[in-house]
Design brief:
Elements: E1 2-4, E2 7-13, E3 27-30, H1 31-34, H2 39-51, E4 59-64, H3 70-83, E5 88-96, H4 99-108, E6 113-117, E7 129-135, H5 144-154, E8 159-163, E9 174-178, E10 181-186, H6 190-197, H7 202-209, E11 216-219, H8 225-236, E12 244-245, H9 266-272, E13 280-284, E14 291-295, E15 298-300, H10 302-316, E16 327-330, H11 336-344, E17 348-351, H12 356-363, E18 369-372, E19 376-379, H13 387-401, H14 414-425, E20 427-438, H15 440-456, E21 462-463, E22 466-473, E23 476-477, E24 484-485, E25 490-494, E26 499-504, E27 512-522, H16 532-547, H17 549-553, E28 560-561
Parallel strand pairs: 4-5, 4-6, 5-10, 11-12, 11-13, 16-17, 16-18
Antiparallel strand pairs: 1-2, 2-8, 3-7, 6-7, 9-10, 13-14, 14-15, 18-19, 20-27, 20-28, 21-22, 22-25, 23-24, 25-26, 26-27
Helix pairs in contact: 2-3, 2-5, 4-6, 7-13, 10-11, 10-13
This protein binds 6-O-phosphono-alpha-D-glucopyranose and zinc ion (ZN).
Amino acid sequence: MGCVAGVIVKQVPTKPYDGQKTGTSGLRKKTKEFMQENYLANWVQSLFTALGDEVKGQSLGLGGDGRYFGKEAAQIIIKLAAGNGFKRVIVGQNALMATPAASAMIRRRKLYGGLIMSASHNPGGPDADFGIKFNYSSGEPAPERITDKIYGETTKVAVLNMADIPDVDLSKLGSTSFGEFEVVVVDPVEDYLETLRGVFDFPLLRSFLARPDFGLVFDSMHAVTGPYAKRILVQELGAPASCVKDGEPQPDFAGGHPDPNLTYAEELVKIMWSDESPAFGAASDGDGDRNMILGRKFFMNPSDSVAIIAANAQECIPYFKSGLKGVARSMPTSGALDRVASALGLPFFETPTGWKFFGNLMDAGKCSVCGEESFGTGGDHIREKDGIFAVLAWLSILAARNREVPVGGALVGVEQVALEHWKKYGRNFFSRYDYEECSSADAGRMMDHLRGVIAAAQPGDAFGDFKLKLADDFEYTDPIDGSKASKQGLRFIFEDGSRIIFRLSGTGSSGATIRLYIEQYTADPALLTKDAQEALGPIIKVALELSKLAEFTGRTNPTVIT
Ligand code: G6P
Ligand code: ZN
């Protein structure tokens, strides 16, 4: 028992739990695991111990994607924050806060950092997943030096410093004090909205959305973006309330898988492929950082999306009006962005998979817009990917393109913007095949086999009709701090620029997910509108043969095709 700033702190004995290994997306486990006695508290205490005396007297942000166990978890975290010397916790009402909004709040309020309770796009509920991660003072996910330290602490944690304070009513806005410690419940949308107001031309978007010949639908997938979409798209920008689909956050996302892709956002896909579809459709994931953009019967590939946003940013988005500082994409993301960078003379960076790699570039003023094939798109206004940012970026592009189009005229939609882009830059056909829940041993054997193929391969070797230029295991040296990340994906790059890439997912919660990424470029105007699966057929065949994927895993079909 002790006393910190007028609050009684109990030293609660605890014992380490195995396997609290922390990645950059924090700790993600089955909800039931998290609900074991001190499981969550151990990790949070380990984080605070790892951060050390730095946390004393600081303010901590807190919120989550609304999934099951979030409210209870918030109460535990508040008590630990007080017990470890924080002076304030700023928490979203009802413990809600989208990941990009948490990043915005940390930056705007100059907080020490924030905790985000989310397992992103994984299903929620007592039998599904929960997660927690820490973001640092510029709003970026904790770097490895901290996540490693947290893990180290989880293996030896023995005492929890728990403030002896009652639960706080998180449904009411306002501040509650216990001694010198304060809990402030805030509207989770407010700071984020202010940040976005500084990026986009809201009046212009509002007048565009008022066009009677333009309609949109935004699918929140029963997850956290519901309140954001209602406030931003409906209240601020004047879209009809009916444009927000599934906008009430639910602890189990209504039993769904809140991942915005063609498989899991099937209801939205149905709407956009129907004859009455609106011109624009979008969806976001559990915690609001991913996005999918659709046109009428048209899927906007995320790799193309970031390239198109980058190509149009200066002209269409006020925040970027003095030009982009640079652009970046993750390695498996298609090379569409590279072409924009070279046409605009912009610094360009190819990073490993994972948003954290963009943060250093942004902090160093070298990157304004970045994206990943995994439905992540963002800008340097915050340090997380940002689903609603992508939506507003696209609406800004459409508003600009349609400025001269009279109401009732031929409205320029997402597909036409894409087609114009491809005509100018050529098209990087891209597809990703996911094989979920493979056995880890099988997946490992397949990767070893591929490493063997790479070791034996020589430039000029033929793989089907493709001639090899380079095969390796991708390694990245951060240009800012010189840190190295190795083994980031097995690449086969061919002489015509086509690529085959294999990676094991770092975000699954059971077994191994194999990701196969395929890309092929064309500048032939006759081929631009070809179906991606058709265009990529031959190279996909090569990929499956060279990896012996079916032989190693017994899988003949992917679980998800993007
Ligand atoms: C998270 C990260 C992304 C990353 C993705 C990769 O969503 O925030 O930056 O692209 O995971 O997931 P994977 O399952 O392919 O490792
Ligand atoms: Zn997410």
